[in-house]
Amino acid sequence: MARIAFIGLGNMGGGMAANLVRAGHQVTAFDLAADAMARATEAGCTPSTSAAEAAQDVDAVVTMLPAGKHVAAVYAESVFSAAAPGTLFLDCSTIDVGTARNTATGATAQGFAMVDAPVSGGIAAANAGTLTFMVGGSQQAFARAEPLLQAMGKVVIHAGEAGAGQAAKICNNMLLGASMIATAEAFVLAEKLGLDLQTFFDISSKASGQCWSMTSYCPVPGPVPTSPANRNYEGGFASALMLKDLKLAVEAAAAAGGSVPMASQAESLYQMFVGLGGGSRDFSAIIKLLDGSWDN
Ligand code: NAD
């Protein structure tokens, strides 16, 4: 049993903290939002009045926050000064590689251990404890973090040194965003060319065009009964979050001197879709922009 502070108990963090409690850990929770605090308390966490209070006298601090600026501020302004020497920090938010590396550098300089451990899998996986964690940090920090991450996920992979978890996450979601657009475009064209969509799925899902966006998350209703297309694109992975991840990928490429034309185009299309009111819909709803049927 470990004493854990959990900061950021929103859509993802709420379920993750509950799974740490279920695994027998003592979890102290802090979020700025009262409803998130109420849910965490209901799940068995001990409520705290600030991030600094939560981070005192614990073995580990887990953060699950919206973006890099929140992560940088919470560690610099609260956690670093409150935590006991040697405390392990696990940032599970999706943030830019630069902020992840800077925060880890600050942590290790002050005698803490830190990993960046962003996740693949949405709210359902956070609640079910079936997330995939991509972890950046030293071998020693990873060894300490792994059992805690196992309590919240089904796959935990050490990606490399600090920032490597974020790099893996950004590259994966860049691929996902582009492959979803390509899959949606193929279905839109198939229909225009007179193909039955189930027939096209039956062919392409077994041919060289097959990919996760088609076989597990098909953007048209019917072929994959569990995909969000079958429930009017509600739930799933919000288009606004896909846009956030594509922006991170494009920024990371610019900082590293790389060229990502597909990701740039995908970013523009999701930017347009979010601007037209599609931000809360699953990212496979981008097909509605491509076929001209989006009316919010
Ligand atoms: P969310 O907005 O539901 O939750 C974030 C929580 O952080 C909120 O409850 C907010 O009140 C809290 N918060 C913000 N600033 C704070 C501060 N200074 N101190 C304490 N609490 C603070 O977001 P989410 O969907 O849970 O996503 C969290 C992270 O996980 C993001 O980085 C996101 O990109 C990533 N992610 C989300 C999904 C998903 O499907 N929702 C999937 C994978 C990764």
From TrEMBL:
SUPFAM superfamilies: 6-phosphogluconate dehydrogenase C-terminal domain-like (SSF48179), NAD(P)-binding Rossmann-fold domains (SSF51735)
Enzyme class: oxidoreductase
Ranges where the 6-phosphogluconate dehydrogenase NADP-binding domain occurs: 3-160
UniProt domain 3-hydroxyisobutyrate dehydrogenase-like NAD-binding: residue ranges: 163-290
Catalytic activity: 3-hydroxy-2-methylpropanoate + NAD(+) = 2-methyl-3-oxopropanoate + NADH + H(+)
Pfam families: NAD_binding_11, NAD_binding_2
Keywords: Branched-chain amino acid catabolism, NAD, Oxidoreductase
InterPro entries attached to this UniProt entry: 3-OH-isobutyrate_DH-rel_CS, 6-PGluconate_DH-like_C_sf, 6PGD_dom2, 6PGDH_NADP-bd, HIBADH, HIBADH-like_NADP-bd, HIBADH-related, NAD(P)-bd_dom_sf
Pathway(s) the chain acts in: Amino-acid degradation; L-valine degradation
Active site: 169
GO biological process, alphabetically ordered: L-valine catabolic process
Alphabetized GO MF terms: 3-hydroxyisobutyrate dehydrogenase activity; NAD binding; NADP binding
EC code: 1.1.1.31
Family: Belongs to the HIBADH-related family.
Name of this chain's protein: 3-hydroxyisobutyrate dehydrogenase
Lineage of the organism: Bacteria, Pseudomonadati, Pseudomonadota, Alphaproteobacteria, Sphingomonadales
